[in-house]
Each structure stands twice: as structure tokens, then as C-alpha cells.
User: Fold this.
Amino acid sequence: MARALYPGSFDPVTNGHLDIIRRGARIFDEVLASVVHNPQKDPLFTIEERAEMLAGACADIPNVRIESFSGLLVEHARRMDAQVIIKGLRAVSDFENEFLQAHTNRFLDNGVETLFIPTDVAYAFLSSSAVREVVQLGGSVTGLVPPGVEERLAAKLQGR
Ligand code: PNS
Assistant:
């Protein structure tokens, strides 16, 4: 069974993430969308909230499972019996950092491959941080995030 891991902060999930998940789910038997718990980052949403929004967004994709991890990505991939790590590439600017991460992960465990999928051009400019900023400043992100996410962002950011 070919299983892939799609890791990220998903703070919050965007339609760009969802595009990669859907396309990954057409290639692999199962895709694990895996929310990272990174104690060095200070996310807007808790890990439970991020996983919940991700689960809502992926509810119609039968071969996608939502879970979370902390620590090394390759160790988690091994634990979950995932042979491939999927990463989305939006632009050349993503490439340098993703390339370094792919090589670091391969140094740590050369049995886990990284697969880059270019993001749909419609979402090439999209990031969770931009979405957070737009909502915080009163703009609309309709069409950029799955249903319900904009409302949760607005509620969370109110009064900040
Ligand atoms: O959505 P993000 O924040 O860009 O996702 C980054 C993520 C989760 C892919 C990255 O932070 C990660 O792989 N974290 C696990 C720690 C790790 O394995 N580090 C060594 C490889 S660089």
C-alpha cells in the first residue's frame, strides 16, 4: 500500500493545501495530512483546532486521514509506514528551503522520498500567514480557504 504524508502547520488550512491533498490522494492509496506540533512556533490555532478544520475540509476525500506529530518528520513517516513525504511548491522562492529540507530528511533517512507537487496557479500566492493578516485587517478571504475557516479566523482574531 502506497501511503504518503503531507505535513504542515495548517494554521489555518487553505485551498492551496487542499489542492495538494486532493491531487496527492489521486496518486497514493492513502494520504496522511499531518499537523505539526512545533513548540518553537506560536500558532494562532491550537493543534486540535487546526486538525478539526483540516478534517472538515477533507471530509469528502475518503483516502485522507488527519493526524498530528511532533519531533522529526522522517521518524513520524517511518512510524506511520509512509514511504513518501509530499510538499507543495508555490514558486521558485519556496524551492530553496524545501530543497534543503528534502536533503536534510534524506540524510536522516534515505528510505523516505520527498515528492514536490506544484500548487495550482490559482493558489500560487496563497499562504496561511497572508490569510491570517488579511482577516486581521478586516479583508475577505472567501474563495481562499475552505468553508467555515474564515469565520473561525474572524472569531479568533477579534479583539487582537
Ligand atoms: O506548514 P509548514 O510550517 O511550512 O510545515 C513545516 C514542516 C512541518 C514541514 C517542517 O517544520 C517539519 O518538517 N518539521 C518537523 C521537524 C523536522 O523533521 N526537521 C528536520 C527536517 S528540516
Observations:
- The domain at 3-124 is CATH 3.40.50.620 (Rossmann fold).
- The chain has one domain: 3-124.
- The mean pLDDT is 96.
- The helical segments are 15-27, 47-57, 73-79, 92-108, 128-136, 149-157.
